[in-house]
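Input chain follows. Return structure tokens only.
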Amino acid sequence: MNDLAPKTTKRTSKRSRAATPGRAPQPSGEVTVVQVPKPPASAMNKSRPISDLIKAQLKHLHHAESGRLPKHKRDGRTPQDIRTEAEAASYIAAVTKVLHPLGRKKSKAKQSS
């Protein structure tokens, strides 16, 4: 088997179909779990030119930045200015920090019984 191919396993769900307030009902039956291996360290090459997918992501992020932020809070770079993965990562981090100043929502800690 190829080491990079996702491994799949089947589990039988033991959840009931009863809806919990505020949540969609969970299906019963078999659930396929896909285990995705960690990418190798060589997957990130800071000096590699950006791919078309990253170019599209930068375009969408720049559109969100332009539509949501006043000029004085914008990064100042355009997608055309960004050439490498390191530059893309820096831009994405900077704009995301301004658009989402509180970061991701923290999950509530489970209470132990």
